[in-house]
Structure formats: structure tokens, C-alpha cells
Recover the amino acids of this structure.
């Protein structure tokens, strides 16, 4: 059943990687039809589970937890090569890592790491859920998975950086989808079409977005044009399906 709402509640991640999509949304007429909420990934995901929002740009690992899910729009936060902002950081080579802190801000990234450490690196480590400020604990044989804007800062501090998207691609031969626009109820085709066009407006105006941003820690032109791949292609959908399969096996195990 299509649910018509006065305002569609939309949740989005407040990271640099979402800014091209939000740039279009904020400059489209669709902005008048939505209530936009920004937060970090796991918080937006929980809002979608709790039905506090109707559609969210959420970590894809949350999809199996939803009673009803619809991937909408032709866009996502994906990678067809190194993504730069989702990495394992350490002072020593991965062969010497004994303990890993997992970033609390995204379930998808920590699940991806668990798959890779088991299947790709084939190594046993002590795993701990991290708390705010955990980057200070990345010392010696203790590593950490850091995501989002903080990963750019960590790149300047840690000697070793293992890009999780790049590792996934090397392991599976498929691209990776970190986040997609997911609705927890059926929404009207009219709204979805308008929302899709708003996303498209954003990724076709990246040069204007970069002009508006002041950021000197990482090259945003490289980040938006090479590291992040925004189109939700058929190949990315295959990568997403494989990830969800592996996540399910990881949970069962």
C-alpha cells in the first residue's frame, strides 16, 4: 500500500561523501516535500528501523533488519576502486596486528572488515567495539577501522592504511556499496522520480559543490570523481547481494 505523507522524513549521513547528493536535494523542489535529518550512519539506520524516518541513505548492512525495505533511486555511496574514507589503520603491517577497534559509526564497514579479515587476510585478531576517541588507541599492534571524514585525518597519522573497498574488490572482483537510499515503506512513484532527479542534479554539479567547500585534508576532486562511485549500477547491485549473503553467513557462524 502506498503511504502518502505530508512531509517525507529523509535521513542522510552527515559525511563529505553524501554532500554531492544532498547538494542536489537542497537545490531541488523536492526539498519542500521532505523533512531532512542528518546524523552519522548507524544513527540514521536505527531511525529507519524505528520508523522515525521514511527513507534514509543508510549503511546497507541494516537492510535485513527492516521489516520492509525498498532500495530507491539510481544512486548510492559506492566504490569501484579504493574509497579512501573506510580503512584499517595501524602502526605495523597487518600480519603483525593483534587487536582491532571497530568504528561505532557504521555497521556496514565493521561487517565488511569482519568478512575481509576472515576470508581475505585470513587472520585472527582480537576485535573490540570502539567508543568516541578510539583513534588515540591505534598504537603498536592495535589497529582500528576508521570511517568517514575522520579517516582522512587518520591517513596523516598512521603508517599503514588498508582500504576496505579496495580489499573487497580484490577479493570478489565486484564493486562495493556502502550506503543506499532505502525506504521502509512504499512511497509514490511521483516522489521517487523527483527524489531521483534531485540526486542526479547533485552528482552532475560536483564542481560547484567543491567550489563551495573549504577542505584541505584530502583532494575532494579525487574523492568525488574517483574514490566514490555514485551510480547504483547492476554490477554494484551484484556486489551488494554478495555482501548481504556473506554477512548472513558471518552471523550464522
Amino acid at each position: 500500500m502506498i503511504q502518502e505523507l505530508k512531509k517525507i522524513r529523509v535521513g542522510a549521513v552527515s559525511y563529505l561523501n553524501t554532500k554531492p547528493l544532498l547538494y542536489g536535494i537542497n537545490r531541488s523542489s523536492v526539498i519542500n516535500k521532505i523533512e531532512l535529518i542528518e546524523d552519522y550512519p548507524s544513527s540514521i539506520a536505527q531511525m529507519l528501523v524505528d520508523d522515525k524516518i521514511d527513507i534514509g541513505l543508510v549503511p546497507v548492512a541494516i537492510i535485513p533488519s527492516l521489516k520492509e525495505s525498498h532500495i530507491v533511486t539510481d544512486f548510492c555511496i559506492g566504490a569501484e576502486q579504493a574509497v579512501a574514507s573506510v580503512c584499517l589503520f595501524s602502526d605495523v603491517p597487518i600480519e603483525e596486528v593483534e587487536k582491532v577497534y571497530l568504528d561505532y559509526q557504521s555497521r556496514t564497514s565493521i561487517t565488511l572488515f569482519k568478512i575481509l579479515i576472515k576470508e581475505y587476510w585470513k587472520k585472527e585478531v582480537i576485535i573490540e567495539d570502539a567508543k568516541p576517541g578510539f583513534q588515540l588507541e591505534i598504537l603498536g599492534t592495535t589497529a582500528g577501522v576508521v570511517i568517514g571524514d575522520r579517516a582522512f585525518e587518520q591517513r596523516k597519522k598512521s603508517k599503514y592504511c588498508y582500504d576496505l573497498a579496495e580489499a573487497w574488490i580484490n577479493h570478489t572482483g565486484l564493486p562495493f556499496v556502502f550506503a543506499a537510499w532505502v525506504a521502509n515503506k512504499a512511497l509514490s512513484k511521483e516522489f521517487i522520480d523527483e527524489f531521483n532527479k534531485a540526486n542526479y542534479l547533485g552528482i552532475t554539479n560536483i564542481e560547484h559543490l567543491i567550489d563551495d567547500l573549504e577542505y584541505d585534508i584530502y583532494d575532494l576532486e579525487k574523492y568525488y570523481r574517483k574514490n566514490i562511485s555514485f551510480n547504483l549500477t547492476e554490477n554494484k547491485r551484484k556486489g551488494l547481494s554478495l555482501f548481504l549473503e556473506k554477512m548472513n553467513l558471518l552471523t550464522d557462524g
Q: What stands out?
A: The radius of gyration is 18 Å. The CA atoms of residues 156 and 217 lie 9 Å apart.
